[in-house]
Amino acid sequence: MIEYRIDRRSGVATYLQIVQQTKQALRLGLLEPGDKLPTAREVVEATAVNPNTVLKAYRELEREGLAEGRRGLGTFVRGTLGRGSADSALRAELAVWVDRARGEGLDREDVTALVTAVLDKTFPAESAAQDSTRTQQNAPEKTQGDDA
């Protein structure tokens, strides 16, 4: 079963972190169609987030066709992403590379920046689309009083 880790300093909305971590588990083959996601109560107990936040994340996964709620039973994985596996040869190579980078003194943020730079160069169109999505997601929501 997936265990969510919430980074309150990331600037990413908590519900989006849950969605992103679920998608990552799907891409890696850690979650497969038919698997049950943790109940909202279990996520709340493990992460101390508001239950409505978990439900919002699960609704987003349902909207994207990746999960489905079954009344009285819970939320289950419905779709999948990617073709990777948690035990793939590419993952093993990447683990070796990350160990080497760490051995050369790079910390997590250095490795993330380096990988992101290479990804942005390799997938430039996707990078621009993700930046646009991130900007929209992190924009403050307007309330009725904001128009004045």
Overview of the structural elements:
With 148 residues, this protein is mainly α. 54% of the residues lie in helices and 5% in strands. The chain contains 6 helices and 2 strands. It has helices at residues 14-27, 40-47, 51-63, 89-103, 108-122, 124-138; strands at 67-70, 74-77. The chain has a two-stranded antiparallel sheet with strand order 1-2. A hairpin with a 3-residue loop joins strand 1 and strand 2 (74-77). Helix 2 (40-47) packs across helix 3 (51-63) and helix 5 (108-122) crosses helix 6 (124-138). It is globular, with a radius of gyration of 18 Å.
Task: Characterize the largest beta sheet: strand count, sense, and whether it forms a barrel.
Answer: 2 strands, antiparallel
**How big a fraction of the residues is strand?**
5-15%
| Range of helix content | 40-55%
* Shape by Cα distribution: globular
Secondary structure class reads: mainly alpha
Radius of gyration: 18 Å
How many runs of DSSP E, i.e. beta strands? 2
> Total helix count?
6
Ends: how far apart? Answer: 48 Å
Compressed to H and E, one letter per element, the order equals HHHEEHHH
Can you tell me the residue ranges where pLDDT is under 50 for at least 5 consecutive residues?
Answer: 135-148
The overall pLDDT, averaged over residues, is 85
Side-by-side strand order of the widest sheet: 1-2
